[in-house]
Write a structure and sequence with these properties.
The protein has 341 residues and is mostly helical. The protein has 17 helices and four strands. A hairpin with a 2-residue loop joins strand 3 and strand 4. The two termini are 27 Å apart.
């Protein structure tokens, strides 16, 4: 891959990959790594193509990247090499651009100083620059995907984008409400996270020529993986050390975002149900609430909920996929869990 650190040696593991992701890439077949390389090159070109200021902010956002799990899902859902591969690369890059755009916009709404241990665009350059960077990434995503000439693909990503916006509005409406029910929390996870995972799987299947029926067969896999991913991310916010997550424990509580660990813990410890999230204003207060949540055993219960979604995802991986791609998708599910073990 080529990123902010320059080109890497051909055949090396992706720069953003850890052990589980590297295993998934290799399991998917020899075509997967070159496709991820091509996605990275395209992302870099998109970031650098709109003047030096936006290029700097968009480039830093994309370079911070993460594991490129969503583009990887696009590639794996295609079920094998696709020729020509340009459309698949554009689809994978488009999903990552939408994901990156939402992170930039979320940081504006949350007034976030850090993202994966680095200063956010909002913190480094202000609200206007961050909004413009996010808007640029969104617009470029759909410009790339439109070049594939498939209205069904555009519809799938557009629906996911609309769901992301609705999920954000729901989260804003629920801010600092310690009484939100489990069903509403799960709906928020579905909209804000799972829908983009669904779209990634659909785009890969559609670009490979599987048609809508083939894409639908992978939607449930993507949905379940997305739900597990978000639930485990929320667990990590309560349990994860700052050196691993790049932020203090309890950042969600400081933002007024009530997640599954708190919802489960309040049922076990009635005193938590009386906590007013508006009174949590310092990192020390947030960490103290995290300790109380952990003491109830709610973190293990939340992990159990996520593991149920992972098992359900693995159960619906289509038997008709080539064995290499099927194995790689199963490893994706395992990798979601491994990140939090």
């Amino acid at each position: 891959m080529t990123g902010a650190g320059g080109p890497r040696a051909a055949g090396a593991a992706p720069a953003t990959a850890d052990g589980p992701v590297t295993a998934i890439v290799h399991a998917g077949g020899p075509h997967v790594l070159p496709l991820l390389d091509a996605v990275e090159v395209l992302l870099t070109a998109v970031a650098g193509g709109h003047g030096p200021v936006l290029a700097e902010h968009a480039g830093s956002t994309i370079a911070a990247g993460g594991k490129r799990l969503r583009p990887l899902l696009v590639i794996l859902a295609a079920g094998g090499p696709v020729e020509p591969a340009d459309g698949l690369v554009r689809a994978a890059a488009a999903v990552e651009l939408v994901h990156s755009a939402t992170l930039v916009h979320d940081d504006v709404l949350d007034l976030a100083p850090l993202r994966r241990g680095r200063p956010t665009v909002f913190a480094a350059a202000g609200r206007d620059a961050a909004k413009q960077t996010g808007d640029l990434l969104f617009s470029r995503a759909f410009a790339l995907l439109a070049a594939n000439g498939d209205a069904e693909q555009v519809r799938a990503l557009s629906d996911a984008g609309s769901a992301l916006a609705r999920g954000e509005l729901l989260q804003r409406a629920d801010a600092f409400d310690a009484t939100i029910p489990l069903e509403r929390y799960l709906r928020r996870c579905e909209l804000k996270t799972a829908r983009l995972f669904e779209a990634a799987c659909m785009l890969g299947a559609l670009e490979a020529g599987g048609g809508t029926a083939g894409a639908e067969a992978l939607r449930e896999f993507g949905r379940r993986i997305g739900l597990a991913f978000q639930i485990l991310d929320d667990v990590l916010d309560v349990a994860g050390p700052a050196e691993r997550t790049g932020k203090h424990r309890g950042t969600d509580l400081l933002d007024g975002t009530v997640t599954l660990p708190f919802i489960l813990a309040r049922e076990r410890d009635p005193s938590l149900a009386a906590v007013d999230p508006r009174g949590i204003v310092t990192p020390e207060q947030a960490e103290a609430i995290c300790d109380r949540i952990a003491a109830t055993g709610a973190l293990d219960e939340a992990r159990g909920v996520a593991l149920e979604h992972v098992a359900a995802a693995q159960a619906v991986v289509p038997d008709g996929l080539p064995e290499r791609e099927r194995k790689a998708l199963l490893l994706v599910a395992d990798g979601v869990v491994a990140r939090y073990s």
